Amino acid sequence: MPPLPIADLDSLNPAKPLYTREDIYKILPQRYEFEQLDGILYLDREKEVAAGVRNLKTDEWWCRGHMPGHPLFPGVLMLECAAQLAAFVQVKVFPMKGDFMAFGGVDGVKFRGSVEPPAQLIMLCKLVEARSRRFICDMQGFCQNQMVFEGRITGLPFLKEG
Prior knowledge:
By secondary structure, this protein is α+β, with helices and mostly antiparallel strands. It has a single domain, classed as Hotdog Thioesterase (Thiol Ester Dehydrase, Chain A, Roll). The chain has helices spanning 21-27, 75-93, and strands spanning 19-20, 39-44, 49-56, 100-111, 119-131, 134-143, 146-158. A 7-stranded antiparallel sheet has the order 1-2-3-5-6-7-4. β2 (39-44) and β3 form a beta hairpin. The radius of gyration is 15 Å and the shape is globular. The protein starts with 18 loop residues before the first strand and ends with a strand. The model has no long low-confidence stretch (mean pLDDT 95).
């Protein structure tokens, strides 16, 4: 049995994001195919909870090969979406030294369903721990109000050399 959602899914409005794709990528370093978030729908700094959205289209770069004739959004890209949401939350809630937040690990990940384009993936994030050397969030993903993944993501501040 999946856990309860971190936030109220019915209160989220993907048509009216708090932060747009352009706003997000003024903060996050990913570019081109790896700009995985389309909006931040909710951010509560006191509760340390956030929600983001990823709009999946049928003509995306991964559709042709995963799986031919029946595209499924790859689990690793679901986790990338979740990690980008966590990194955005980190910047807004607990700024750290470093150029950006890098993957430090994933724990307890369970995939509970598939996501087929066209679709909307809603991700929820809850801060678990914030320290100067790591940032940990519980993450959940939903498609059509059904949980499709859950897990815990650890981020580590990354400092570019030079």
